Amino acid sequence: xxxxxxxxxxxxxxxxxxxxxxxxxxxxxxxxxxxxxxxxxxxxxxxxxxxxxxxxxxxxxxxxxxxxxxxxxxxxxxxxxxxxxxxxxxxxxxxxxxxxxxxxxxxxxxxxxxxxxxxxxxxxxxxxxxxxxxxxxxxxxxxxxxxxxxxxxxxxxxxxxxxxxxxxxxxxxxxxxxxxxxxxxxxxxxxxxxxxxxxxxxxxxxxxxxxxxxxxxxxxxxxxxxxxxxxxxxxxxxxxxxxxxxxxxxxxxxxxxxxxxxxxxxxxxxxxxxxxxxxxxxxxxxxxxxxxxxxxxxxxxxxxxxxxxxxxxxxxxxxxxxxxxxxxxxxxxxxxxxxxxxxxxxxxxxxxxxxxxxxxxxxxxxxxxxxxxxxxxxxxxxxxxxxxxxx
Length: 391
Prior knowledge:
- By secondary structure, the chain is of the alpha+beta class.
- The chain is 30% helix and 28% strand.
- The protein has ten helices and 17 strands.
- The strands form three sheets. It has a six-stranded antiparallel beta sheet with strand order 3-2-1-6-5-4.
- Strand 4 and strand 5 form a beta hairpin.
- Helix 5 packs parallel to helix 6 and helix 6 runs antiparallel to helix 7.
- It is globular.
- Keywords: Hydrolase.
């Protein structure tokens, strides 16, 4: 695969698996932007009919991140292997094997192969559009194209944490965005919501996220990250446009979290069966006023905690009876998704939101889930780090 042309990874792999394992068919299915379907990637790069993630064998392998197999015609076995990179689920590798070749050693090799394919796809997408094109169930708007290019991934996992995130509508998103980065000692998260719609909102958010990344990569505090991004936005828009932002920095050793709440995203925590909103003191959105000073607050997380960050396009949505989603439905959704991995939670919450709301929303909806595992043997923060909760 490393010697293959970027657009020809599947063809190259198909030949290798046929020669080595007697594979009769090899197919790559790529997850669409909404993570609702898996689109087959053909030999020439053309996509066929998508396979739904819900109620399909391929979808079960994708959701569980575990291999799944089906026996057909008695002498053939169809295997589905998750294709992922550091927790980011890219799609499914489907391989048909003769029954006599479908043995544990072969399955183990193919699991490893699917992992290698995930890494090679990540590199190949720098040089070709064929895989990005195959993922699209419909054409992205220009604003959505800008937003998806800005995102780090839809999920990520490490020893200390697992993250899952999703934006809707996937093909027409505007100003909502998220970003993350980690090193040996800490994880930094940013959830942003640029005001307005369309390309203007995407350009505003692009400037905000780039400014936050520039400040973060300078190794400064979350307070100063917010301040520098605020200055960059004000210099460009002079207060006429602003970006609501939630910044979080997790310390791996202690479970302490520094937070700057500069706008509308809300933060919820599930600890055991208890759910509470972490009610931080609100500060000015980025870019609203010149030289705003930001102050970080602290709360604590413990191994087993689940955090959910939602934009106003989620918590403020109302039912036909006029009830806001955050009043009771959000807590119910958190309980209902308690056994799902972090990567699957945002999609499940957004499905629940679609059933809840009175009508289609014109606003973006963003859900980001963090499962906290912490460093093995670290000391959890005491009561002082529990945060202020409204539920």
